[in-house]
Design brief:
The complex is a heterodimer of chains A (about 400) and B (about 300). Chain A has about 400 residues and is α/β, with parallel strands linked by helices. Chain A folds into 2 domains: about 240 residues, Rossmann fold (3-Layer(aba) Sandwich), CATH 3.40.50; about 140 residues, Rossmann fold (3-Layer(aba) Sandwich), CATH 3.40.50.920. In chain A, about 40% of the residues lie in helices and about 20% in strands. In chain A, strands 3-2-4-5-7-6-13 form a 7-stranded mixed β-sheet, sandwiched between helices. With about 300 residues, chain B is of the alpha/beta class. Chain B has a single domain, classed as 3-Layer(aba) Sandwich (Rossmann fold). Chain B has 12 helices and 10 strands. The chains are: A alpha/beta (about 400), B alpha/beta (about 300). At the A-B interface, β3, α3, α4 and β9 of A face β1, β2, α4 and α6 of B. β9 of chain A pairs parallel with β2 of chain B.
Chain lengths: ~400, ~300
């Protein structure tokens, strides 16, 4: 039986961690993810978990300690945001290439310049090529559910990759929402025990981890890692199916919202999808065939599936909540556009960068984007492909 | 039981030949001696910083290490060791493991004094049960002898080269051993590669078998960076001790103790004259550097002696 509760996104993640009872949690605080280890510290203080909770001196060390613990044969977790994630950058690549399924909760926050504590995806998007699986949530329920699935995906013998469970800093991490939690025992049974085949502390057989890989060997290791990321696509769906069987909530690579006959659509991530859905509903009432695709799994990128979902549309706006500085649009746009490159029929596409550093995203803004898409569909002219929405003086607004 | 080198050398080897370290390098010798200090029935997890030692001892698909071994990056060895040690605690708590694992960390002076200093300090402060061995060869040797905070004054390094306007490194050597002592570590020692290895062995054993974060700083010459001929390694180590350039001492629960005091302290130039990195000090006009080096060593030696009284 599910338990109805009201939790913030951070507390939802901490609750999932408590239910899973990982062996090691290495923490270092940073806004807005700090509450996750704080809640967890209280679980430790109250004897509700038997995790080794270590308060390290930096995020570089929290991820490094997780790497050590996972290699030693244990389940290791941590949480971070923004500059903390950037500080981990080097060792994120190590965790992934050492094929250690560390689970990292990220309450996504803008990166500095200027310093800002609010939400966008500049932190997690900067790590999109780190080799971590990345799963994003629209709301607190989703981040809880994603977290429950994370260990099984990462630890699967065909995958063995670390996982980032991303949510929107403050917007979901700090907002209280109704949530359905699962029973502790049901969670434990679903997630299972971690039993790696080889590990440093294996009594009967030592293990050597992290070699110098010279040119004759390096490439094979990287290809094996790339294959694991491809395999992760299958495993993500398998775990989601089992999750649905156990707990009744459905998950895929992305959510298609009113896409059956959509002619114009947004591709969007995270909590903004909720806002955009309200715009879709209003437009549908007016007879506009609008829809949206909310990307849940960004790494591995569900290219074929996304191409299929969008191929029937006349025009599509890809909404990036991070600036890629490519002078050619954001990271979600780059991957979405690449997904459609060989499609026999593909929509005209524009990229809109919005919501940076916690800038509001409103229903009326979403409707204005749809109005632009209607115009593109009618004229077959995209106009400027890459624009910024929601600046103070609205100079970016293209009608 | 009294220390017996022959007995020690007849233990099964735990750091195997075939690695790619240079002849006359201290790092492999430190690694072997470190592992000899373990009881044969005890197992180790060795956490190694990126270094000459790492790239030379674990080049896929070969490893020189008999025990479990992990290398992740340059600056995070103590954090990795913290994770391994925490995992060991977690597994013990769950009854999944026998308690015969020792967590050892090893890095060069770059990975310990400098880029790895934050992670070392953090792990020492948190009190993890592990022993950190620093093989201090007094510069970044893996990248080609750039100066580190462990490089002594007047040593020529590729980023502090001697020249018409330069007599090598201008700054002193960071006293990492005493900085670790200041963390409240239960056992800290300095040693080097000498004679029967009794000094190294006794200190390594004490460090490994003392509960908590312990630290052994090993002066470990590098033939390429120090510019000496390989067979001079033991002589250079001996002279480092006899000149008081590298005092042998230990600190147990904050109590300083000299483990060796030279009967007749040799002049520092005896240590310097064997090494190319100090060759410029012996050129006409640079005699003052040898005097200054002597003064630097004397002051540090006296200060240390005072702490040992």
């Amino acid at each position: 039986m599910s338990i109805k509760d009201r939790l913030s996104g951070n507390e939802a993640v901490a609750t999932a961690m408590r239910q899973i009872n990982p062996d090691v949690f290495a923490m270092f605080p940073i806004t807005p993810s700090t509450e996750i280890p704080q809640y967890f510290a209280q679980y430790v203080a109250d004897g509700r978990v038997d995790t080794e909770f270590i308060c390290v001196e930096s995020e570089h060390s929290s991820m490094s300690a997780c790497i050590g613990a996972e290699a030693a044969g244990c389940r290791a977790v941590t949480a971070t945001s923004s500059a903390g994630l950037s500080y981990m950058n080097e060792v994120l690549f190590c965790a992934a290439s050492l094929r250690l399924p560390v689970v990292l909760a990220v309450s996504c926050r803008a990166l500095t310049g200027p310093i800002n504590i609010n939400h966008d995806y500049s932190d997690s998007m900067a790590e999109r090529d780190s080799g971590f699986i990345q799963i994003y949530a629209e709301n607190n329920q989703e981040v809880y559910d994603n977290y429950l699935q994370a260990h099984r995906i990462g630890e699967h013998e065909g995958v063995r990759l670390p996982v980032m469970i991303c949510q929107d800093g403050f917007i979901t991490s700090h907002a209280l929402e109704n949530i359905e939690l699962e029973e502790d025992e049901a969670v434990k049974a679903f997630v299972g025990e971690y039993c790696p085949e080889n590990y440093l502390l294996k009594q009967e057989n030592p293990l050597a981890v992290g070699p110098y890989g010279t040119s004759p060997y390096y490439m094979e290791a990287r290809v094996a890692q790339a294959e694991a990321m491809k395999k992760a696509k299958e495993v993500i769906l398998e775990v989601a199916a089992d999750f649905e069987k156990n707990f009744g909530r459905h998950y895929g690579f992305f959510e298609e919202y009113r896409m059956e006959d959509a002619e114009i659509a947004l591709v969007i991530m995270g909590s903004s999808a909720g806002t955009a859905k309200a715009a879709v509903d209003e437009l549908r009432e007016q007879g506009v065939k609008a829809g949206l695709v909310k990307v849940r799994v960004f790494r591995p990128f569900p290219a074929e599936e996304l191409a299929k979902a969008l191929s029937g549309c006349s025009s599509v706006a890809v909404m990036d909540k991070s600036e890629g500085f490519s002078a050619h649009g954001g990271p979600l746009f780059a991957d979405t556009a690449a997904s459609l490159i060989n499609a026999p029929r593909r929509p005209l596409m524009i990229n809109i960068v919005y919501g940076l550093g916690g800038r509001d995203f409103t229903v009326s803004q979403a409707k204005r984007v749809f109005a632009r898409l209607e115009n593109i569909a009618r004229t077959k002219e995209t106009g400027p492909v890459y624009t910024h929405l929601g600046q103070r003086d609205d100079r970016e607004e293209v009608q | 039981m009294a220390y017996n080198l022959k007995e020690q050398m007849s233990k099964p080897e735990r750091f195997h030949p075939g690695h790619g370290l240079c002849a006359g390098c201290g790092a492999g010798i430190v690694s072997r001696a470190m592992l000899r200090a373990l009881d044969p029935e005890d197992r180790a997890v060795v956490c190694n910083a990126t270094s000459c030692l790492e790239v030379s001892s674990f080049q896929y698909p070969l490893t020189a290490w008999e025990d479990s071994y992990i290398h992740v990056a340059f600056e995070n060895t103590s954090a990795v060791a913290s994770g391994v040690e925490s995992a060991l605690r977690a597994m013990k708590k769950k009854g999944k493991i026998n308690d015969n694992f020792k967590i050892l960390a090893i890095g060069g002076d770059g990975g310990t004094y400098d880029i790895g200093f934050q992670s070392l300090s953090g792990a020492m402060e948190r009190g993890h049960d592990f022993t950190y061995f620093c093989y201090d060869n007094e510069a970044y040797m893996n990248t080609g002898t750039q100066r580190s905070s462990a490089t002594p004054p007047f040593a020529s390094a590729t980023t502090t080269p001697a020249g018409t306007q330069s007599v090598g490194k201008k700054e002193g050597k960071k006293d990492l051993t005493q900085i670790v002592v200041a963390h409240g570590s239960p056992y800290v020692a300095q040693t080097t590669l000498l004679g029967t290895f009794k000094d190294f062995h006794d200190k390594a054993r004490k460090a490994i078998y003392t509960e908590g974060p312990t630290f052994v700083n090993v002066l470990s010459p590098c033939p390429r960076g120090w510019q000496y001929s390989a067979e001079l390694l033991p002589e250079i180590c001996r002279l480092a001790v006899e000149t008081c350039v590298w005092p042998l001492y230990e600190v147990e629960e904050g109590e300083y103790r000299m483990t060796y005091i030279p009967k007749k302290k040799l002049p520092v130039e005896r240590f310097m004259e064997l090494q190319g990195r100090f060759a410029h000090c012996f050129k006409p006009g640079n005699e003052w550097t040898i005097e200054a080096a002597q003064k630097y060593v004397d002051e540090r030696w006296e200060a240390l002696l005072a702490k040992c009284r």
